[in-house]
Amino acid sequence: MSPIKVYAHRWSQPCRAVIIFCRVNKIDFEEVTVDLFKSQSLTPEFKKINPMGQVPAIVDGRFKLFESHAILRYLASVFPGVADHWPRPDATKHAEKVLMQSLARIESVWLKGDAKFLLGSPQPSIADLSLVCEIMQLEALGDDMRNKFLGGHERILTWIDNVRKTTSPHFDEAHMFLFEVKAQMQSKAATAAAKQGGSEASSKLKFASKL
């Protein structure tokens, strides 16, 4: 299997975090330096990898991903050699609790009653647009996690739909890349899980044949 490519510049804190994570967990990777001081992240060639023109970014086969937290989550979930302590269930549970509290507050304070948009406005504001894009990032976690967080918040789901319809077709166009990355991550994770399952089954079969 070819090593993943990590596009980075060590001046960047998130880039250093990704590189350290790969080294510690013995993930086979090739570091490709993107010199920020020479604006190499803004070149047409690099923007084919990350249209936002930012580092870090990774390429794993035909799969491309950027934004350091998304990259780290991907590396931790897809590569079987990564130790369990990196996902930190306790920290995850705390983050989930904070997120759930925030979503509940949005409904109880910002989307009271039959409010179509934040603070009862009949038309969307900058606040609506900024917040909805933050919440849409939950799509990157997959359908199960998204539904876990948003499934019980009908007002928020209705509000997201209101913003989507009001800004159509630009809303879906702007989030198309997010959904593509989500689909690629799910496919990659499923493939990795299948390979791991096949490897375990093969090991059991070999063990049984020795008995």
Q: Rough shape?
A: globular
Question: Count of helices?
Answer: 8
Specify the helix fraction band. 55-70%
Specify the biggest β-sheet.
4 strands, mixed
- Counting helices, strands and paired strands, the structural category is alpha+beta
Order of helices and strands: EHEHEEHHHHHH
- Pick out the low-confidence regions: none
- Count of separate structural domains: 2
Strand order of the largest sheet: 2-1-3-4
The number of strands is: 4
Distance from N terminus to C terminus (CA atoms, Å) equals 33 Å
Cα-atom Rg, whole angstroms? 21 Å
How much of the sequence is in beta strands? Answer: 5-15%
State mean pLDDT (0 to 100 scale): 85
Protein name: GST N-terminal domain-containing protein
InterPro entries: Glutathione-S-Trfase_C_sf, Glutathione_S-Trfase, Glutathione_S-Trfase_N, GST_N_Theta, GSTT1/2/3, Thioredoxin-like_sf
Task: Report on the architecture of this protein.
The chain is built from 8 helices and 4 strands, in the order βαβαββαααααα. By secondary structure, it is α+β, with helices and mostly antiparallel strands. It has 2 domains: 4-78, 3-Layer(aba) Sandwich (Glutaredoxin); 91-197, no CATH class. Strands 2-1-3-4 form a 4-stranded mixed β-sheet. The radius of gyration is 21 Å and the shape is globular. The mean pLDDT is 85.
Q: What's the structural blueprint in terms of helices and strands?
A:
Layout: E1 4-8, H1 13-24, E2 29-33, H2 44-47, E3 57-60, E4 63-66, H3 68-78, H4 89-110, H5 126-136, H6 143-150, H7 154-166, H8 170-210
Parallel strand pairs: 1-2
Antiparallel strand pairs: 1-3, 3-4
